[in-house]
Amino acid sequence: MVAVPPTPAIDDPATPDPLGLPTSPDDPRIDVRRSRRRKRTVSARIEGDTVVVLMPAGLPRSQERRLISDMLGKLARSGRRRGTRASDAELMQRAKGLSREWLDGRAVPTSVRWVPAMTTRWASCTQASGEIRISEALRDVPPYVLDYVVLHELAHLVVPGGHPPEFWRVVRRFPRTERAMGYLEAYSRVLRPGAPGAPGAPGGESGEGPEGPGEGVGDLIDDGTA
Ligand SMILES: [Zn+2]
After folding, report:
1. Is 33 a residue whose pLDDT tops 60?
2. Which position among 2, 121, 178, 187 has the lowest Cβ density within 10 Å, counted as fewest Cβ atoms?
């Protein structure tokens, strides 16, 4: 006889939230703020460990509970519970937009997410699985630089085999490629002064690495050919 494991109950208030935030309307960390100026809209935001729910004053208690449950569910689904999650969702949106705009939608990543700052690379990509990882060191760069790095990784999903000329033809459809590469070259010197051939440095001294000519984004490509 085969034991059937219990199906996890998504809405079960007893299910611990992996992020440690409230899942039940009864959680003491839910701060309900009622406003007479609010008409019908209900919203919620995260403040530290607390979920602040803003709702119109004068609602029946039972309706409040239902609305709070709805908001908790929405927060969980929207991925806006923590900064990194929101940004991962945004990164994926960004990647989809870039793929549409510059790659005819041919790059279809399965995940695009921030990873803790890597020591020597801005980004990495696993072609077989379609996963793209972007270093948190790039959180504060100008949008066009982040666009370039994401597009660079997307291009690896389209053109296999590292950085052949065809790869760069694809990447350079993005008009600010050279400018972004220049930015990264300078930025890597700021972050890692004295590091020769730092990522983003075209023609850097360590140019001929196992990942190819270390040009452009200093990424780690796992295209299954190794
Ligand atoms: Zn690359």
Report:
1. yes
2. 2
